[in-house]
Design brief:
rod-shaped
Amino acid sequence: MTVVAAGMMAIVAVLTLACADLGHVLVARANAQSAADAAALSAVQQLAVPSGPSGCAVASEYALRNDASLETCEPSSGSAEVVVGVAVEVGPTLLFGDGRIAHAQARAIFGAG
């Protein structure tokens, strides 16, 4: 009976660690989406009302402010629309180690829909 109990405790411990890792990854994914949204909005604002650097340069700055790195920035020619992609490092996880990256993409359009 004690072997079964020890096995059950090990299973519960592994499941607990997996749940903690999942929560960590989901938070990183939400942070990546927030960074992508901010980058896309800042880039489209710069395209709509130019005031200095390019929209993609502004998007990169906003991504960095949100602890993310800009992966893609695709402004549409002829319109105030931009699609950006960012990456956020997840950080150390308990079961799966380091080096995980959360990716997110956002699209912003300026003008009447």
